[in-house]
Design goal:
heterotrimer; A alpha/beta; B alpha/beta; C alpha/beta; A: alpha/beta; Rossmann fold; Alpha-Beta Plaits; six-stranded mixed β-sheet; 18 helices; 23 strands; 32% helix; B: alpha/beta; abc type-2 transporter like fold; 2 domains; four-stranded mixed β-sheet; 5 strands; elongated
Chain lengths: 604, 369, 373
Amino acid sequence: MTAATEPATPSPATAAPATALVIAGITRHFHIGKRDIVALDGVSATTTPGLVTGLIGPDGAGKTTLMRLIAGLLRADSGSISVFGTDVRADPLAVQGMISYMPQRFGLYEDLTVAENLDLYADLQGVAPATRAARYAELMQMTGLASFTTRLAGKLSGGMKQKLGLACTLIRPPRLLLLDEPTVGVDPVSRRELWSIVDHLVRSAHMTVLLSTAYLDEAERCDSVLLLHEGKMIGAGPPGDFTRAMAGRSFQARSARLSKRALQAALVPLQGVTDAVIQGEAVRLVMDAGVTPDFAAQAKLSDAAITPVTPRFEDRFVDLLRAKAGTTASAKPVATALPPRARPENAASQVIEVDHLIKRFGEFRAVDDISFAVKRGEIFGLLGANGAGKSTTFRMLCGLLPASSGRLQVDGFDLRTAAPTARGRLGYMAQKFSLYGDLSVMQNLNFFSAAYGLTGARRTARTAWALDEFELAPLRDATSRDLPLGFKQRMALACALMHEPDILFLDEPTSGVDPLMRREFWQRINTLADAGVTILVTTHFMDEAEYCDRLVIMARGRILAAGTSEQLKQSCRDAAHPDPTMEDAFIALIEADDAKSNPRAEAA
Amino acid sequence: MFGRVLALVIKEFLAILRDGKSRMVLVGPPLIQLLVFGYAASFDLNHVPFAVYDQDRSIASRDLVADFAGSRAFQQVATLHSPRQIQSLIDSRTVEMVLDIDPRFSRDLLTHQPAPVQVIVDGRNSNTALLILGYANTIIADASTTWATEHGGAAPPAQLDPRALFNPDLDSHWFIIPGIVALLTQVVTLLVVGLSVAREREAGTFDQILVTPMRPLDILLGKSIPGLIIGMVEATVSIIASVYWFDVPLRGGLLELYTGLLLFTVAVTGIGLMISSIAATQQQALLGAFLFMVPSIILSGFATPIANMPPLVQDLTWINPMRFALVVIRRCFLEQPSFRSLSGQYIAMAILAVLSLTAAAWLFRKRSV
Amino acid sequence: MSGALMRLRGLIRKETLQILRDPSSIAIAFVLPAMLLLLFGYGVSLDARHVALGIVVEQPSAAAASLTAQFQQSPYFAPRDFTSVAAAQTALANEQIDGFVWLRSNFARQLHAGRDPNIGVFVDGINANNARIIENYVQQSWSDWIAAEATAAGTPEITPIAVQPRIWFNPAVSSRDYLVPGLIAVIMTLTGALLTALVIAREWERGTMEALMVTKVSMHEILASKVIPYFILGMGGMVVSVLIAVFLFDVPLQGSILVLTLAASLFMLAALGMGLLISTVAKNQFVAGQIAIITTFLPAFILSGFIFDIASMPAPIQWVTHIVAARYFVAILQTLFLAGTVWSVLLPNLFALLVMAVVFLGAARLAAHKRLD
């Protein structure tokens, strides 16, 4: 036996294992207080060396727990994991010698510079000093960080941090690379760059990658997919297998007579419809297996044009979830959220008006001369990467920040200067569904109804409405922190609607929520819009943009483009993108803007 | 408006009481401080170890040693036979005092010469040293008088008989424990109020409140009332513990005591709100509270008299509400002060309360809407 | 360079850069100590000077004037004259004076007649400690006056027993001289335990610890990389404190600097061990800060013998002080500063510190797992 002096070098017996990672019957519980949470429940899977495997599932599916178990940071209650034939539990240090791991917040030291972070990880990974310069140069070139080596990591943008985090884990090429939600919170451009680095790596270095994500559209970029939901593995295989299973079931429906929302509302309750979601001006339709979309019997839908489209990963996921839950799209029709209300005279008028709005922080213009207007009953989107200025705009509209110059009006008021009662027309749902985590559902509802000045019978009625409408009654005494994400989101919406606002502000309302919950949420929002509520959404999720009637795309504090999602998508149609997605449109706009502001970069 | 403030107050209480971390802040530090200060912090001497180097070895010298050994304050741990042992015992801190009785002690006594007794004290802890010396002086003076009366010598013309008002036994627990009432009230109120806004900022719920029709004043009131109530409850609990557990007499009126406590808590609430409106995270709020708390306790007269401080530092104590609260609480415990005699302290705290609340309201408006 | 050494070097360099760039580390390591030293050096004194003492003279006489003069000469008193006891009582109640001496109208007459003049001494007992010190001072001044009067009259009065007080090491009984050395122990507890606990908790909070753990780095290396830079920082803080003590506050340093360094090193290691232990229990800064203040800072203040006499505490509390590392260090500091290199004090205390350092560092190592659960 001459082997085994260097654990990272495979011994001849395991030189080319057929599997990189073997996960066998992993179960893991967590105890939070008295509660027992099953994070992973009998999960088994294998991955193939040299491929990018995606670990896909909504927030709370157990992705991070599984990653940490593989990295030897946690121990499983039962089951085993081995990495290239080495059992993680038996020899965690040997496994850690073979892997690199990027945790969710990238594991960077924000008070160290880019170069110092690289030095640290080079030392920790035992990279020989002689080979470092070349490796750094290669990584910096690949990540585009070459000119930022002396900048503090904390001062980098989200996308740059993520690339630096990736560079740090790649200082010494590992056999297995674990990336925990590397694309969360970064804009589509950075997301695409990250994927190109990952693709490049795998091809050149035969590295095995396990990457977790909550974005279902990323599944299609993986070689293989593990689909995780509520701690259980509900599907595994190449992404093509998932979409192939949906062959002939995905369609697009358009109607000249019905609005997109009316069309969706008409389609959802029908027998045989698995899924119907708004996509731009059309409705994306998924039929139950073996059912053809023939709606001749429905008078309303007589003019609906149904065209087949390529299935996508999400279609399969929704299909699997529905099959698991035994429901169809129509299982729970969402009731009209609001009673019909007396519309003001000027029903068609502009509810939100922003005119040459500027916000300066010192020399920096966070919002740089933007103008737009939102009509009553419209769902309006502010789309942009982190730092594009959409949050600043949003906060100014809510009256949380003063504008430096320009004019802004919400329902005829500048909330910054108007009497506090003017804010009573406004509902607000913050990012991450900020509620009082220590309070129970009922206590939260009571607090917000009082905060909005509801009293007596109206308060009782509205609280009862919220419990009933959002199916929160069984959970009324549960501590809100412990609720599943989908219920937190429902509760946040309930709290924002307690006082029946005319205008609803939503900040990334469905980030990380599973597709069924997301559909339910948007169905409610559509109903509200139909009832005349004006809705303003800020988001960097392309999915959420699809639901908007109109939207603006922001970058560097300015508006790059405005229009319906259909118009924006069509504006970038070219030979390379015959059927552009929202993401393609976004990237095209950003790149055009970058080229304008930095012509040399384009020449290079 | 009243409904909104009430809702905020209820929410604040629920958030504090349902969260383990916040409960810990309310129960942990106060309990530990009560125990530690109540039992450990004392300037009284008990069982101070001392050694005797009796070169005289007479009945008179043995009587004197017996007087020391019989006192609660002293405990004899060694008898020495050579002067060199004194050095080593004091150096090694085995004893804190050595009673060195001169060989001529009994002869001088009988011949009416001043009979010399050396009291050697370890000065490394100067406070203890002074106290030991004081205790020793008292014992020797008593022995002196006894001897004089028994042996017909001329008694000293006058004996001083100091009387300590309000605390006849000069039990320092009576001094420290009422101080804890002020200390705990300040710590708890400051932490509850100081962390409350920071906690909401971290959780993102603060924006949520700001977009409701609540006015800044409503929010300010909703944030201060819970701190006020919790501070008063904490004060009451520590007053009860002082009286029933530590047996400190409560002689003054509750009206005078609680007027002072209320004004004090309001002033501290104002300071807590100032910290709260500046701090962006709970971490910063905690550091801010700590940075305020340490000097405010040291410069309050809690352990050491303000009169001993240099004039400049004494001036600084005028902006410290705890300074005035301590006077009110201690006097209410041990004296029976009239409302009027405390009015100076009340007014000072009221002024500080108005100033700190105004500053907090200003900072609050500046940072939020 | 071997892998372990390279990893350690990288970690230590990272830690050093972080200390240099983080304002809160600097605040806890330098601003807080400086504030405490100045507060204690200037603000805290247990020595009563210029005590406001009322002297009630109901009927002026030569004897009364000479006694008043005796009080006026004393550095301890700032006497104030009253003509009626009621006025003095009011002043006492309003805290304008800390006590008063009452010479009744028959004072001179009784004194001359060789009878007890029945002098009243009243002290405000609310601050018991202060009251006791004032009583002693009054007693002292009175005895001095009696002796002086008797000598002047040619009939030296003889007290049967003459007390000769000798206060060793600190003849001027200046409380600053013993508070400032003791304070160094409190300050080093702050840098050692509080700062260390906070920075490690911060690594947990920011998720960087997770990234570190999934490298080949061992737990020994992670712990060593925390101990070494903060050891140097703490020792730096100590040097600054000693310099302030000696040069700003004129506290004498009688003992050996070498022994001081040794003792400080052992204490620092024990404090770091505590800090590491706390941070493995509490993985967020808020809880770590709370625990550190309760288990290290407060005991260093109250239970170390720094202000309050350990021998006078109740037995169970005395027992508890044995597990407070600061207790041993305070004993060493007060001895080294005021008495000198006294091995009989130093050896047992140094040994105790060594044991505590080994126990705490060992416990921290045992408690630290390279896992999140």
